[in-house]
Amino acid sequence: SRPEARLPRLELLTLGVGTYEAALKELVPEAKSLGIFDAIHAYGNFSFVSPAMRQRWPWHLEAWELHRARIAGFGWWKPVLCRQHLAALPEGRGILVYSDAG
Fold first, then answer.
1. Nearest-CA neighbor of 46 among 72, 67, 82?
2. Ramachandran class of 52: left when φ > 0, alpha when ψ lies in -120 to 50, beta otherwise
3. Cα–Cα distance measured from residue 45 to residue 80, given in angstroms and rounded to the nearest whole number
4. CA separation for the pair 100, 102 (Å, rounded)
5. Alpha carbon of residue 42 to chain centroid
6. By three-state DSSP, how is residue 51 classified?
7. Left, alpha or beta for 37 (phi > 0: left; psi -120 to 50: alpha)?
8. Buried b (16+ CB within 10 A) or exposed e, 38-47
9. Rounded (10°) CA dihedral 28, 29, 31, 35
10. Which of 10, 35, 44, 60 could make an S-S bridge to 76, C-beta 3.0–4.6 Å?
11. Around Cβ 7, how many Cβ atoms within 10 Å?
């Protein structure tokens, strides 16, 4: 087995909005109980959206906010949110696991 200090940082990322908020509330404690994640990033809303993102993705955000478009605004946020969290991981020493909540 590898020494603990050499293990990569393991983080979980998930988003559950609208009808998937209940699934998000179940997923987080289940993930914590595994005891393998160094951090769990769970979003039940679009609090991570910056003003710049609002300018870049207005149609997608509006589609979600006004019409509850599928995949929470056509899924524009998946690569955006993953990129944001990947950038925060230690280079060469981190693994980001993404899971839809629901």
1. 72
2. alpha
3. 14
4. 6
5. 6
6. helix
7. beta
8. eebbbbbebe
9. 140
10. 60
11. 13
Give pTM, 2 decimals.
0.81
Strands 9-15 and 94-98: parallel
Any idea of the CA torsion for 68, 70, 95, 38, to the nearest 10 degrees?
Answer: 40
* CA 102 – CA 91 distance, rounded (Å): 30
Contact 34, 61 (CB under 8 A): no
Helices (DSSP H) in 1-102: which residue ranges? 21-34, 51-56, 58-67, 70-74, 77-88
